[in-house]
Design goal:
Transcription termination factor 3, mitochondrial; disordered C terminus; 57% helix; mainly alpha; 0% strand
Length: 235
């Protein structure tokens, strides 16, 4: 496509992009990630910028970052791709789509729905599945086979925890299974403690170890104590 493209059209696109304050290095990265940009006419690129600003409500100061993060936005049709995806995301309750513009270039049918269906198939209701994606939109980008499935299986089989925790904290799937989830869970099991998922995974390594040390050096509170937690959690 690049070979047969009009040189004048390519130059016009390059000139337009550089006029948007993209440096030569930034533009090379953008084109490297999405070469099709060079074969896209300026008349097709301008509506994308207009859409992002007026409909997706991306701030002018953030538009450059949005494109730099997801260059493929520039080669998407506003009518056939961007706008329908925007409406879908809004329909499930994601109000600030401007913070997740990288999702606009994704296919609702091929990417979003299979992931929602996956969570329904493993026991979540459609409502709960939707809540999870609303709370953590990046979940749409995770591979079912390489991310969601192995982490879910470990959560259920090895950790034996309640699915409600995933609804409350879908960010669980953003943490490394081998480097964060497994080692921290195993250390808690060895010490006989159970932290809520955010405490287990979000805290720094040093703070996590400090909490374990506190548990190791503290006696179990009596059931009559206000520190007692019937669910066994230590926050």
């Amino acid at each position: 496509m690049l070979i047969t493209a009009s040189l004048s059209d390519i130059k016009s696109t390059v000139e337009y992009m550089t006029s948007m304050d993209f440096t030569a290095i930034e533009f090379r990265r953008i084109v490297g990630m999405c070469p099709e940009i060079l074969t896209t006419k300026v008349s097709d690129v301008i509506p994308v910028f207009t859409f992002l600003l007026r409909e997706a409500l991306v701030k002018g100061s953030d538009i450059k970052h949005a494109i730099y993060r997801r260059p493929r936005l520039l080669v998407c049709s506003v009518d056939k791709q961007l706008r329908p995806t925007l409406y879908f995301l809004q329909s499930i309750g994601i109000e600030e789509v401007s913070k997740h513009t990288y999702l606009l270039s994704c296919s609702v049918e091929e990417k979003f729905m299979p992931r929602i269906d996956y969570f329904e198939n493993i026991g979540f209701s459609r409502r709960d599945s939707t809540i999870m994606f609303r709370r953590f939109p990046p979940l749409f980008c995770y591979s079912i086979k390489n991310n969601l499935e192995p982490k879910y299986n470990y959560f259920v089989v090895e950790m034996g925890r309640d699915l409600k925790e995933l609804i409350e904290f879908p960010q669980y799937f953003s943490f490394s299974l081998e480097n964060r989830i497994k080692p921290r869970h195993k250390r808690c099991v060895e010490m006989g403690v159970c932290f809520p998922l955010p405490t287990l995974l979000k805290t720094s390594e040093m703070r996590f170890r400090n909490r374990l040390d506190v548990c190791l050096n503290s006696s179990t509170p009596l059931k009559t104590s206000p520190l007692w937690s019937a669910g066994g959690y230590i926050d």
